[in-house]
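User: My instructor asked us to take a sequence, write out its structure as tokens, and then describe one feature of it. I'm not sure where to start. Here is the sequence I was given:
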Amino acid sequence: MAVTVLAFRIFAVLAAALLVGAFGLLVLMPDGMTLDLALAEFNPALVGHMRHFVQHVLGAGAWSHAFMPLLVRPVWLIPFSLGLVSAGVSVSLSTPTESPRRTRTRG
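Assistant: Let's start with the prediction itself. The structure tokens for your sequence are:
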């Protein structure tokens, strides 16, 4: 029971942080900023290093079919999606509240 409550709170805080972060990215970043452009602003060689690492470890197919579609999405979409998933996990882990018992009156 205590582990479930702890996991519920962890995922609730994680969901809140990710959703607020996604909103901040949406508001503060220029229109049309994709994840690869944001990473290139942070470090111009980062995307190339990521590509080399992924192709070396997971293969070229993983880069073209899994990572490239994520890099062309808006920068706020990934934290937003992870925030929604975390919120769903948090709600799933929440302890169910008991429904009020109906008392029957004879009359």
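For the description part of your assignment, you could build on this observation: Residues 1-29+76-95 form one domain. Try explaining in your own words what that tells you about the chain.
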